[in-house]
Amino acid sequence: xPRSVNAVAARAKRKKVLxxxxxxxxxxxxxxxxxxxxxEKALVYQYRDxxxxxxxxxxxxxxxxxxxxxxxxxxxxxxxxxxxxKGIDINRKVLADLAMNExxxxxxxxxxxx
Length: 114
Description:
The termini are far apart. α2 crosses α4 (92-101). It contains five helices and no strands. The radius of gyration is 26 Å and the shape is rod-shaped. With 114 residues, it is mostly helical.
């Protein structure tokens, strides 16, 4: 009996990967083996960097809060410590936004914890 292969599904899988590789440079966009490796690597980076993005934003917010707090003679760690002691529950994203765009509101928060 002849061997049966599901060429339709195999072709669809290859087309899907080549579509994902659209826009890549050189053979990465149109040669199956090269494109498959490039797409797999890209998906690994994509998965990893969804988590890295969260870390990098938190670092940015901390830097902005630190710069804002130092204008009023306080370091970041003492500022956050006093915020927790007073029971003021504002997350770092909001604090960083206040420090950057609403200096008066940030000063009011700093004055409250002093």
